[in-house]
Structures are given as C-alpha cells and as structure tokens.
Amino acid sequence: MERDISYIKTILYGTTTTFLALSFMIFPKEAYEASVRGLTMWWDVVFPSLLPFFILSEFLIRFGVVSFIGALFEPIMRPLFRVPGSGSFVWAMGLASGFPAGAKLTVRLRQDRKISAIEGERLVSFTNASNPLFIFGAISVGFFHDASLGIVLAVAHYAGNIIVGLAMRFYGVGKADISETIKPKGFSLKYALQLMHGERLKDHRPFGKLMGDAIHSAIQTLLMIGGFIILFSVLNQILDLIHITVLLSIFTTIILSLIQMPNELSPALIQGMFEITLGSQTVSQTQETTLLQKAIITSFILAFNGFSVQAQVASILSETDIRFKPFFLARCFHGFVAAILTYFIFDWFYIGTTNPASREEVVPAFQQLYVSNFFHTLYEMVLEWGGIFTLVAMLSWIILVANKIHQPKE
Fold first, then answer.
1. CA 282 centroid distance within chain
2. Is residue 1 predicted with pLDDT exceeding 70?
3. What is the structure's pLDDT at 48?
4. Amino acid 369: pLDDT
5. How far apart, in Å, are the Cα atoms of 385 and each of 45, 140, 187, 364, 380?
6. Which residues, 6 or more positions from 383, have their beta carbon under 8 angstroms from its beta carbon?
7. Which domain holds residue 293?
8. Beta strands per DSSP E along 243-323
9. Is 76 within a domain?
C-alpha cells in the first residue's frame, strides 16, 4: 500500500513539475515579468527589512540575552502558552521583523536545545506574524491609501495571534514539553543573570568570527526566502494565465456566498492565498465592495500568510524535528479568527456611520495617528534606500565568503 502511494506521489510530482516547466516556456515574457516583480520586492523590501533583525538575534542568542529574557518571562509564557520564557524573545522579534523570522528563531532555539519539539510547534504557530511596517506602510497606506485602516488590521492580526497561542497551549498534551536547559522557576533576577553569563561563556568564538557567522547565516536564509518569493510570484502568474485560478474561484465563490461576501473578492482571495502582497493589492482594487468587506478578506490573507511564506517556513523547519502540519493548521485558524475579529472591531477602531450600507463613506478617526505616519515614512525610506542597502550587504557577504575560502587551514 505504501509503495503504491509512493508511486502515485512520484507520478504526481513529475507531472506537475513538467506541466509548470512547459507553462514557463509557453509564457516566457509573463514569467520573466513576474520573476522581476518578486525579485524587486525581495531586493527593495524583504532583504533590508529582515537582515538587521536576523543578525541582531544571533548576537542576542550568543551573548545570553535570550536566556536572560527566558528566565524572567518563564512565569508568564509557560502558564499562558506552555512554552519556555525564551519564547517571549521569539514573539517580540517575530512581531517586529515579520515572517518568517518567528520560524527562523524558533529553529535556532530548538537547535540550541532551549525548547522541545512540541514547544517549538506551539511557539512557531503564533510567533510568525506580519510586521507593523508592512501592515501600515504597504497595505493600509500603499494599497488602500488610508492609514487608519492599519489600526483595524493590526489589532485583528496581533490579537488573533494571541488567541492562536492560547489555543495551541492545548496541543500536545501529555507529551514532553519541558525544555532541557531552562527549567520552570519563579521570577529571579539573579538566576536570570547567572543563565546569561553561563550562556555567554559557552561560546568561545571571537567577536569578529561571531559577526561573520551571523552575517553568513542571515544572508543564506534570506537568499532562500528570495527564491521562494520569486518562484511563487511566477507560479501565481502562470496559474492565472492558464486559467487554473478560474477553477479555484468556483470553490471560493461558494464559500464567500455562504458568509454573504461579494463574489468580486474571489480572485483577490485566491491570489492572497498564494502571495500576501499581490492578494492584498488586488483586494484594495476590487470594485463594488465595501471597505469592511475588503478589510475582512485582507485580514484573512495576512493571517493565512500565503503559500509562499508557508513554503519558506516549511523549508526552515525542515532543519529540525519541528513539524509543519501544526503550523499550517494554526495559519488556517488564525485566518478565520482575524477575519471575525475585523468584523466585530471595525466600528470601534474605524469610527464612522452606523449604517452598514454606507461603510465605504466612513470618516477615518486615526488619520493623524503618529504611529501610522511613522510606519508610512519608514516604509518609504525602505523603498528608497533598501536596494542600496541590499547591494552593499551582498557585496560584503561575497567578500566575506571569498576570504573564508582562501583562508589557510590550520
């Protein structure tokens, strides 16, 4: 039986890959344009946004800061989410830098044996989130031209993450979930400092070597992320050209009809399930829909992460024994939770008329919020200078690798 299933998988994988390869050759111009869009997004935004966080997180782990934070937040994180206190560091960095930073840092903790596999599956399920820069800068201002909408999307997104984390605490009940290095203990500053000092002493590498290894690891991960972004950008375009999305829209149309949402949002939902940025942009351009309906679908797309991000996470998790399936189920759950939260909090955080039929004419209540303007300005700076930053970083990495190759062995 298993052998037959293996043969079926081989035929399925081979047929699908061949079909896509032929599609690329039939539509070379469209595939090239889609790959350029994906590359531009990675080069100008993703790389400069994630690289500093990846490098900084490596230093924080090696210098024992993560162990220090873990000891302090152990009494909070374990009762609430059933993960070690070091999960608070992953959560904070994941929110600040965006996906797939949560998965990357969860894997690092697992490789250092600071968490168990079950704890890693719980942790990665609610720490892989979109960063405020993307929500406020790219989506709310860049696509919808409405900074106040970012408040609604952010509250629904991050509150949904907390709900997912609370729900995942019941996952893996009865299995080993006590990390090997940080044992449950009450709040103790002295104990936290001792752990931090001990962790720093374990690493005997000089600072220059540590910095080089951190940069090398971060850029390798970002190159992998860039490959996935380009691949799914092309794949999304090809599926649209060969009308596969039309077939998929039949199912999404039925689902949208059941929840009384307009069918016009079906193409945007399908695109968003593959790639977040393109899906969100398509939602913002959809006509004959209200702002509330657009916000609900956008919240779902953000929380679901898209198959592109999920593929990145799956690749990162494959380095350990942390399974991908719990993460995927958590993304589906987060998508529905975020969409429901958006429906209920819309009138609270985006104040306007109480008539549902006139929600499109809502007057922004948070238009002058400094947080929205700050992230919008920051996002414009990333777009303007991100490419130069990426170029400098890549040249530095090439020089670093070249020196490492030509360095004489002892």
1. 19
2. no
3. 86
4. 53
5. 9, 21, 43, 30, 9
6. 44, 45
7. 29-63+124-172+206-406
8. none
9. no
Q: Give the range among 16-20, 76-80, 202-206, 257-261 with minimum mean pLDDT.
A: 202-206
Task: Write phi, then psi, for 355 (nearest 5 degrees).
Answer: -80, 115
In whole angstroms, give the CA distance from residue 371 to residue 136: 9
In a domain, 389, yes or no: yes
Q: What is the DSSP letter of 364?
A: P
Return all residues near 272 (Cβ < 8 A) that are at least 6 apart: 278, 279, 280, 282, 283, 297, 298, 300, 301, 304, 306
Which residues, 6+ apart, have CB-to-CB distance to 367 below 8 Å? 146, 147, 148
3-state secondary structure of 327: helix
Cα–Cα distance for residue pair 6/339, rounded to 1 Å: 38
Cβ neighbors of 18 (< 8 A, separation 6 or more) are: none
φ, ψ of residue 103 in degrees (nearest 5): -70, -40
Q: Which residues contact 255 (CB under 8 A, 6 or more apart)?
A: none
> How deeply is 208 buried, as exposed, middle or buried, from its count of CB atoms within 10 A (0-12, 13-18, 19+)?
exposed
For the ranges 62-76, 95-109, 246-260, the maximum mean pLDDT occurs at 95-109
End-to-end C-alpha distance for the chain, whole angstroms: 53
- Total structural domains within the chain: 1
Q: Say if 197 falls within a structural domain.
A: no
Q: Other CB atoms closer than 10 Å to residue 311's CB: what's the count?
A: 21
Q: Which helix (H) or strand (E) holds 19?
A: helix 2-26
Summarize pLDDT for 142-174 with one digit per residue, the tens.
888 887 888 899 999 999 999 999 999 888 776
Six-digit token string for 5? 């299933």
Sign of CA dihedral 134, 226, 101, 47: negative
For residue 366, what pLDDT band results from cuts at 50, 70 and 90? Answer: very low
Place of tokens 């924080």: 60
Amino acid at 255: I
Spatial separation of the C-alpha atoms in residues 76 and 252, rounded to whole Å: 40
Cα 345–chain centre separation:
23
CA distances from 405 to 269, 374, 401 (A): 47, 43, 6
User: Is 97 within the bounds of a domain?
Assistant: no
